[in-house]
Predict the 3D structure of the following.
Amino acid sequence: MNDLVSPETSLGTPMAPPLGTASAIDSHAASATGAHAASAMPPHAASAIDTSAVMNVTPRPPIVFAAGEGSWLTDTAGRRYLDFIQGWAVNCLGHGHPALVQALAQQAQTLLTPSPAFYNDQMVRLCTLIAQQSGMERVFLCNSGAEANEGAIKLARKWGALHRDGAYEIITMDHGFHGRTLATMSASGKPAWEALFEPKVTGFPKVPLNDLAAVEAAIGPRTVAVMLEPIQGEAGVFPATVPYLRALRDLTERHGVLLILDEVQTGIGRTGRFFGFEHAGIRPDIMTLGKGLGGGVPVAALVATEAAAVFAHGDQGSTFGGNALAAAAGCAVMETIAAPGFLEQVSQMGAYLADRLAALSAKHGCGGLRGQGLLLALDLERPIGPAVVELALARGLLLNAPRPDSLRFMPALTVGSAEVDAMIAILDEVLGEVTAG
């Protein structure tokens, strides 16, 4: 649901060398000491594959990816790229993780879907894993974070109709991002969307993140819920603070309204805990999951406490929701992340990445870091993000600039120190060239 850089910025032609040839990225990966390899690499022609049938909704570079392994992608010309985007934090286990590949291969030979009108064994298994891990009793499986958030909005409004005299308004945050359906765009706080696809769905008053007084002032008789991301990823990785989340949980309980946490990006181990809300020691009434839940396979979840799970038969559905193939992928991801030591390793690698980025920032006169675990942003303190992303791609490194003055890092949760070192070495060279003008 994101663009590689801001929508106004297109990418230049990448210049990574063919697979198996000497390159800057191969040198850094083999010996990530920061030593400079050849700074100039020969450009290559755009992909010969005709991409004209693909609807033009985002400025894509002229490369076509064909394979992936771990933290690496390979395009149709055999060029390799170090991936610190991972499908916008989707490929939480990296590309081609054996547990995920095995689960998909086995399930594809057994059962794809019997229709959502029936239970299937993988649906039941995944819902049970999510319920047990979250401490919330009910799970509805769907296909994307946007669909999960749309379901959360509907569920909250149904709860308001039953328990709060028809209340329907959901307070959301400035600069929040909840998806690209009409309702989730309306709930989002992206300024660029204000005049897009009007008229939007009403009932989403916005307040600043981390401003508890603003939330309390916005609560009224029509308020049914407060909805936010524990970390605003699309906005540039801006966290809701632990004191704010705790106070917000208390505030919503005192006023008798629901707390909805959009954990589409922060959930499934991304922050070093299974769910972002665990850092604050709270539990929401409704939570949404997506992105990393399927490890690259489209699966998402609407999760609710027993008290909030008020859908009646026919209120909600999804043709592919809970299909056995996607649910098997979700089970493989959940079980891998729940394995002893996995989340500790995420926290350790998040700290290592943060330390390396902090040193790099000091060297190049950049600003501070934001985020937690393996969802981090570097404040560049000047609008060079798109230029950095473009040159990094040319050097065989995939990065994201969610805003002109920031870089976002979303590597696989399985990333190793050698891959972090390789990324830092390339980014060091790129920042040096971009800031030199």
Notes: The chain has twelve helices and 17 strands. The longest strand covers residues 223-228. The first helix runs from residue 24 to 30. Residues 1-45 have pLDDT under 50 and may be disordered.
